[in-house]
């Protein structure tokens, strides 16, 4: 049944959609030129929901590099409501698949530093057309409301910009090999979700280390929007401390590896299991560049969320919250 959903079809096309984004590199060099300008001291990356987690993934990648400007990830609502103090040398980087997210458009209307850049799937959108440089994401299809190809493509485009700005050859190579490796990751994710047995999940916590924190935020969002269960995405040490406090039998703790072995991840899993939670470790993040964790763990998080949602009788392609979300989120469309 899971394989018949539009959401899983969207996930299954991730390798080809990412290949299209990364091969085209449409606007990547332009955005990199703006970000890497001598005048830029700080990149303020912003979005909402999954797009905000793209900004978080970029910020976490920047923390592991000694090159490039400072990067901060800021929720778009702060920018739109005047709760953010711009500084000289700031560069605004807007992340929005549609290019029409209301808060970002309002922030631009209110006056962000210029020039500004965008990562979007629509060059002709409000943000895409008004940005001085834009990196374009290829979305082959979006059958379900949940962003799959748009989210993963935006992470890839943002990291491609960062690899160019910082001359990070290893990250660049990891991105180039990603679409091919993702073929087996998607297949493993579907099989894993089918084989894990009963998943009692009244609530959930998801944790990941370093760049895996962005993956955890997105996985928690998938559990909320697709499976309909309250979920929190945290950094691994938070998973082993504050986030485990409310865990008990009937709750889920989802562990997301990022790169090579992580002893802190094993500790968090043990602590959460001790609270009575069902602990699962998702496939996809092990043995790959840790900066790509938000992409490589996405198929497993999506597959698990779909399985739980279908078992609960939910429409995983068009959830009940869809219309209410768009009333709040969109400005012109």
Features of the shown structure:
5-stranded parallel sheet, 9 strands, single chain, globular, 4-stranded parallel sheet, 15 helices, Rossmann fold, 2 domains, alpha/beta, 333 residues
How would you summarize what this structure contains?
This protein has 15 helices and 9 strands. With 333 residues, it is an alpha/beta fold.
Describe this structure in words.
By secondary structure, the protein is an alpha/beta fold. The chain folds into two domains: 2-177, Glucose-6-phosphate isomerase like protein, domain 1 (Rossmann fold); 178-311, 3-Layer(aba) Sandwich (Rossmann fold). The protein has helices spanning 6-12, 14-24, 28-35, 50-63, 76-80, 102-110, 126-130, 149-166, 169-195, 212-227, 236-240, 263-274, 293-296, 298-311, 322-329; strands at 42-47, 70-75, 90-95, 117-120, 133-136, 204-208, 231-235, 252-256, 278-281. Strand 4, helix 7 (126-130) and strand 5 (133-136) form a beta-alpha-beta unit. Helix 2 packs antiparallel against helix 9 (169-195), helix 4 (50-63) runs antiparallel to helix 10 and helix 8 packs antiparallel against helix 9 (169-195). The longest helix has 27 residues, at 169-195.
Number of domains: 2
CATH class of the largest domain: Alpha Beta
Please compute the radius of gyration using only Cα atoms.
19 Å
Mean pLDDT: 95
Portion in helices: 40-55%
The count of strands amounts to 9
Distance between the termini: 32 Å
Q: Globular, elongated, flat, extended or rod-shaped: what is the shape?
A: globular
Total helix count?
15
**Strand line-up across the major sheet:** 2-1-3-4-5
């Amino acid at each position: 049944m899971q394989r018949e959903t539009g959401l899983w079809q969207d996930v299954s096309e991730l390798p080809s959609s990412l290949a299209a984004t990364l091969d085209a590199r449409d606007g990547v060099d332009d955005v990199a030129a703006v970000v890497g300008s001598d005048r830029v001291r700080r990149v303020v990356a912003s979005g909402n929901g999954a797009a905000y987690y793209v900004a978080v993934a970029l910020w976490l990648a920047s923390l592991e590099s000694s090159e490039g400007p400072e990067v901060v990830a800021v929720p778009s609502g702060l920018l739109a409501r005047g709760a953010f103090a711009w500084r000289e040398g700031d560069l605004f980087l807007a992340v929005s698949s549609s290019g029409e997210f209301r808060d970002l458009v309002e922030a631009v209307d209110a006056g962000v530093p210029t020039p500004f850049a965008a990562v979007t799937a629509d060059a002709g959108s409000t943000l895409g057309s008004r940005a001085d440089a834009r990196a374009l994401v290829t979305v082959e299809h979006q059958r379900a409301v949940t962003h799959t190809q748009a989210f993963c493509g935006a992470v890839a485009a943002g990291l491609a910009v960062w690899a160019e700005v910082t001359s990070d050859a290893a990250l660049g190579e990891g991105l180039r090999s990603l679409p091919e490796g993702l073929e087996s990751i998607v297949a493993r994710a579907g099989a894993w979700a089918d084989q894990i047995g009963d998943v009692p999940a009244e609530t959930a916590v998801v944790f990941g280390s370093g760049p895996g924190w962005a993956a955890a935020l997105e996985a928690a969002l998938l559990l909320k929007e697709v499976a309909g269960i309250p979920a929190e995405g945290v950094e691994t040490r938070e998973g082993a401390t504050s986030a485990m406090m409310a865990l008990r039998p009937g709750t889920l703790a989802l562990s997301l590896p990022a790169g090579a072995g992580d002893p802190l991840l094993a500790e968090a899993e043990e602590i959460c299991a001790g609270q009575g939670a069902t602990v699962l470790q998702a496939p996809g993040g092990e043995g790959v560049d840790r900066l790509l964790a938000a992409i490589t763990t996405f198929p497993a998080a999506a597959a698990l969320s779909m399985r739980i949602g279908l078992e609960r009788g939910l429409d995983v392609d068009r959830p009940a919250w869809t219309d209410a979300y768009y009333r709040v989120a969109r400005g012109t469309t």
